[in-house]
Design a protein that fits this description.
This protein is α/β, with parallel strands linked by helices and 375 residues long. The chain has helices spanning 2-6, 11-19, 23-31, 37-44, 52-67, 105-118, 137-147, 163-170, 189-192, 201-205, 207-213, 230-247, 275-288, 302-308, 345-354; strands spanning 70-80, 123-128, 153-157, 174-182, 218-223, 252-256, 293-296, 315-317, 358-360. It is globular. Helix 14 (302-308) links the parallel strand 7 (293-296) and strand 8.
């Protein structure tokens, strides 16, 4: 399990190594065709700031070589904001005194129909709070079965599950799983997650191994920018990705670096990342792992997303609502966070085409889910 691997790396030493990087370290990393974690640290270090344009061009070339000029489109569907966790930064925090919503199968179906009216989406991300008693595996499985009638590709962002539960859900239409570790700083993790099942650092961290063991087609990972030093956190994530690629080499991977957005929690970030720093991180990850899918959500503003669509990003959401029932059935329910890009899917797609990018609404087909004996 990766929890054992992570113990090999000291947080403070990693931070010190990053901050000690020099221009020669950056230049050496940019000249290499295969990078290790030391090279990655050079590219995200302050020493790399003067090389941003060079990094951008290398990132663009690599992205077009691997992905062409396409941007995969998806949309999230929040089906419950009921949660037993007390994450200090999240609008779904158990202690926030708001009415909670758990969509019924009929309401989920109505939401699906409303989303299909927004645009030709085929990639759906199903999101829940973490309440295993009221919205556990059985509930998630039922939601997958309902949504499968409308979408070709289904990804979930839910509480970490057992490998047996992940494997079970792959038989009900599940194609991918996204999980945000939030921070890899084990010593500080409970400060942000004081209660609830999410407070178990190792259970969450090793969830990615359980996804791989279950044969999940695609695994998405990320850290929340705003908690701890972002350079150290993303270095740990890069190490985690390298580990997963070696152990579960048949699986596809995506990364996301969401910056903290306002929510009902009122929590203020400890660390603020500028647009320029997020661009640097995006370029560094593309150069470090040419095949990883880099995703930007509507947490980021419209103009910045457009700019990054030509330089390294390969997946985007559009038209997002972060409250359960936000598309049709419960439009005023508690949202997880406020979005930044509220442009409709048609505007997002039109802007991408103007930039010479082709929005891809479908990159997975149900036939791929059939046993080989039926093909």
């Amino acid at each position: 399990m990766f929890s054992d691997e992570l113990k090999k790396y000291d947080w403070d030493q990693t931070t010190a190594t990053i901050m000690a990087m020099t221009a020669s370290d950056v230049e050496r990393a940019l000249a290499k065709s295969r990078l290790d974690d030391y090279d990655f640290m050079a590219l995200i270090s302050p020493a790399a700031a003067p090389y941003l344009e060079q990094m951008a061009q290398k990132s663009r070339i690599i992205t077009e070589q691997r992905f062409g000029k396409t941007i995969s489109m998806f949309i999230p569907l929040y089906i419950t904001n009921s949660c037993t966790n007390s994450c200090v930064y999240c609008g779904f925090n158990h202690h926030n005194k708001f009415k909670r919503v758990i969509l019924t199968p009929e309401e989920i179906e109505e939401e699906c129909r409303a989303i299909k009216k927004l645009g030709p989406f085929e990639n759906l991300l199903i999101v829940t709070g973490e309440n295993p008693r009221l919205a556990g595996t059985d509930y998630i499985e039922e939601a997958l079965k309902v949504c499968r009638k409308y979408f070709s590709s289904l990804t979930i962002e839910v509480m970490p599950l057992s490998s047996e539960d992940y494997e079970r859900l792959t038989h009900s239409g599940l194609n991918g799983v996204i999980c945000f570790q939030e921070t890899y700083n084990a010593a500080r993790y409970k400060v942000y997650h004081p209660a609830g099942m999410k407070s178990n650092f190792e259970w969450r961290l090793n969830g990615f191994d359980r996804m791989g063991q279950a044969g999940v087609h695609k695994i998405g990972m990320g850290v929340l920018i705003g908690l701890e030093d972002w350079r150290t956190d993303v270095t740990m994530m890069a190490r985690h990705l390298s580990y997963l690629r070696k152990v579960y080499w048949k699986t596809k991977y995506s990364v996301n670096f969401p910056r903290m957005r306002p929510s009902e929690s009122g929590y203020q970030p400890n660390v603020v990342m500028s647009d320029r720093e997020l661009a640097q991180l995006t370029f560094a990850f593309r150069i470090f792992d040419p095949d990883v899918d880099i995703s930007y959500s509507t947490r980021e503003n419209h103009d910045f997303r457009n700019h990054m669509a030509t330089l390294g990003v390969t997946t985007m959401s559009a038209g997002s609502k972060t409250e359960p029932g936000g598309y049709a059935t419960h439009v005023n329910s508690l949202e997880q966070f406020a979005i930044s890009d509220d442009a409709n899917p048609q505007t997002v797609a039109a802007d991408l085409r103007t930039l010479g990018r082709e929005p891809v609404w479908k990159d997975w087909d149900r036939v791929f889910d059939l046993p080989s004996s039926r093909l």
